[in-house]
Amino acid sequence: MRFFGICFFLLMFVSSGLADDGYDSRAFPRPLIIEYPQNNEFQLKESLEEIRLHCTSWRFAAEANNLNPWKTIPPECAGYIEEYMTGRGYHYDLERVSKEAQIFANSVKLGDDGRDIWVFDVDETLLSNLPYYARHGFGLEIFDHAEFDKWVEEGIAPAINSSLELYRDVLKLGIKVFFLTGRRETHRNVTVENLIKVGFEYWEKLILRSSEDHEKQATVYKSEKRDEMVKEGYRILGNSGDQWSDLLGSSIATRSFKLPNPMYYIP
Amino acid sequence: MRFFGICFFLLMFVSSGLADDGYDSRAFPRPLIIEYPQNNEFQLKESLEEIRLHCTSWRFAAEANNLNPWKTIPPECAGYIEEYMTGRGYHYDLERVSKEAQIFANSVKLGDDGRDIWVFDVDETLLSNLPYYARHGFGLEIFDHAEFDKWVEEGIAPAINSSLELYRDVLKLGIKVFFLTGRRETHRNVTVENLIKVGFEYWEKLILRSSEDHEKQATVYKSEKRDEMVKEGYRILGNSGDQWSDLLGSSIATRSFKLPNPMYYIP
């Protein structure tokens, strides 16, 4: 039993080190662990299991839109979220959403009037701000508009590759694409440049927040814009976004695809 | 490195045994594992990690409503889902949804006309069919209406305790409750008896599928019933259900709460 306790203890701490063919001896010298008193070892195992359970559950609740509005990730989940975002978990989840969306897109019979469209959000949907959030605790810090704007203005956000694949597939099928973002009109040029640079070179419309939309909740602003699309005769087949406020409200798409994002919440 | 490989291997297989202060020696005699060739050991570790990643991702996609319609769980995730449903994960997630719903319910200012309501689904929301699904592979088998009906007619489904807490809290606040289920009218009596027996003793209305609703998709049937509630002047504050078809469509609640259910999907 003691053997298993030690194993678990070690694995929880050095899981990142496994890939590098070793563990971080600076953080935890091996002899110290092997000689750890049994009671503490069990308590630690218990609490590590508890944190993993707790943070997985929190992440599920976030993705299923069950959480009341939140401003930062739970502090005790900082390590868990970092591991998820920088490890394989996040990319694996992104790829799955993209694949499911592609299956759906390929299954739809399009009209011959060119009015079938797909709506994409931009941040954490087409473009990744992970380099920014990596410097800001992966959601542990309260969102700083001014700091984030500086990052946006650099125009160097990389593409989310799985979304690029979906985007290309959707275009190839003859579905028109609309980009609908919470970014402001003042960021139009830098957003256009950034999008084109990383492979999103064509769109039917890129909609940014104009001054009269600044104070609106994202759900309201995005619903109004989708209402306009529907009024113009477009049929919204698919909608991809990392926030539920990208997807819910009025003029909901036939299928909505929620990309993972456990770092921040926009109501 | 070999030590970690062995640890991981053992932990994946004997995690259930840990609680019993040992591992199942019938399934995997210890000497066999210790002497396992290193290459196979790594391959196995890799594939176990892969399955865990894959099935967690699948479960997330299901809970976020990203999956195309599915009839059974992925066969390779059978063990993962069983562990989730019978271990602490499922109950932990259920409790979190209930708590978030309670926070929301307690934050709402009610009207003084008694028209504020909360809608609850029944199966896997108020009542648990886990004893049935435990006998049927936790979603691994294709749904068998006749078999499931027999189970329903026994009238012995236990309460989901976290939902019982939410239900009691909601009633205490003065919010009326509606039960809206996909069960048929022919099961009204047994459903009433089952609900009362496990603590759900009061409701404003219990709505079951009448014969004209049999062929409708759940989303359509439930939306129509919610439309009627709204027409009668009720305000749907909350809606709790384990299926997205309980929550989406028209007359959506102010807040919808998606209870976990990785075992089956109802469109």
Automatic annotation (TrEMBL), chains A, B:
Q: Does the keyword Glycoprotein apply?
A: yes
Gene3D superfamilies in UniProt? HAD superfamily/HAD-like (3.40.50.1000)
The UniProt GO MF terms for this protein read: acid phosphatase activity
Q: Name the domain of life this protein comes from.
A: Eukaryota
Q: Which residues form a coiled coil?
A: none
Establish whether keyword Glycoprotein is in the entry: yes
Query: Where is the signal peptide, in residue numbers?
Result: 1-19
Give the matching InterPro entries: Acid_phosphat_B-like, Acid_phosphatase_pln, APS1/VSP, HAD-like_sf, HAD_sf
What keywords sit in the KW lines? Answer: Glycoprotein, Signal
Which family is it part of? Belongs to the APS1/VSP family.
The protein in question is named: OLC1v1027109C1
**Which organism's genome codes for this protein?**
Oldenlandia corymbosa var. corymbosa
The lineage is: Eukaryota, Viridiplantae, Streptophyta, Embryophyta, Tracheophyta
